Amino acid sequence: MKAVVYEAFSAPPRLQNVPDPTPVAHGVVVKVMATGVCRSDWHGWVGHDTDIQLPHVPGHELAGIIEAVGKDVTRWNIGDRVTVPFVAGCGACPECHSGNHQVCDHQFQPGFTHWGSFAQYVSIHKADINLVRLPETLDFATAASLGCRFVTSFRAIVDQGKVTAGQWVAVHGCGGVGLSAIMIANAVGANVVAIDISDDKLALAKAMGAVATVNATKVASVVEAVTEITHGGAHVSVDALGHPTTCFNSISNLRKRGKHIQVGLMLAENSTPAIPMSKVIAHELEILGSHGMQAHRYGAMMAMLQTGKLMPEKLIGKTISLEQSIEALMNMDKFDVTGVTVITEF
């Protein structure tokens, strides 16, 4: 099969022919029909993820058709249309038994712990636990765009933030994660303030449902601007970028007893950001993470897709080929792409 392979961290990946995967007994092989290009893939490529063993094939936001099935798989057949959470559970540890597969003690992550979906085929383990069936009405590019960004944002807003109608939600960073969070928060009835440094991205944020925007380069204080717009601070605030500045601002712009949700990855030199802990204590703020979403929680999100309350296809900025994904991956740190980039040609 054709696959994008890198043999050293930060070295240019190459399009190579590599052996086709075969399914393990409890797994399947999926023919990749679409896969997203995500900043998490960039973090892996530059060496921020210790799970990656070289040589490596990136890619974790995938949708496709089952090509082969392991002998112990009972719920899936060749030809089924599927996707998979970017964090897949083992099904046997205490976290999985409690229903929290997204923090499985022995998690499987295509594109990180194993070869991923920047390829024509990808192997998925523990298929009966982790695969999600795609409705026939959902195209593969849109399904892939759910990837880690949309589902992580859904869990952040709905399950972790428990956002309700009329609340103020601040979203810091209007890339794929942030735009997803804006759309989802708007769908559940919240008033969303979008913060970014790009007017183009803020315009897209407005189109996704933000009622107000803040360009961080054009105000003296992001925290003061958000506090004024929200009449005292956000009930829930999301750092969708993953940077010490956005993390600090997201916590600082909360009202008393508000919730900060960290979705953007904080790795390498950004892994220990400054936190306004005196405010966290005095205002009884909550700091939460969102790390993917379990396969069994996809039903609620899929129902909102099918009724048109959520339209992730609006987040797709462009579609590209597998060969073009190399340049897209290497440039993910430049933040010059609006919306989500999806590979659809293999």
SSE inventory with pairings:
Layout: E1 2-5, E2 14-17, E3 28-37, H1 39-45, E4 61-69, E5 81-83, H2 94-97, E6 121-124, H3 127-130, E7 132-133, H4 140-160, E8 168-172, H5 176-187, E9 191-196, H6 199-207, E10 212-215, H7 222-229, E11 234-239, H8 244-252, E12 254-262, H9 277-282, E13 286-289, H10 298-306, E14 316-321, H11 325-330, E15 340-345
Parallel strand pairs: 8-9, 8-11, 9-10, 11-12, 12-13, 14-15
Antiparallel strand pairs: 1-2, 3-4, 3-6, 3-15, 4-5, 5-7
Helix pairs in contact: 4-5
How would you sum up this structure in a few lines?
The chain has 346 residues and is of the alpha/beta class.
Your description of this structure?
Helix content is 27%, strand content 24%. With 346 residues, it is of the alpha/beta class. The chain has 2 domains: 2-147 and 293-345, Medium-chain alcohol dehydrogenases, catalytic domain (Quinone Oxidoreductase, Chain A, domain 1), CATH 3.90.180; 150-289, NAD(P)-binding Rossmann-like Domain (Rossmann fold). Strands 3, 4, 5, 6, 7, 14 and 15 form a 7-stranded mixed beta sheet that branches. A 6-stranded parallel beta sheet has the order 10-9-8-11-12-13, with helices on both faces. Helix 4 packs across helix 5. The longest helix is centred in the middle third of the chain and has 21 residues, at 140-160. The chain is globular and about 55 Å long.
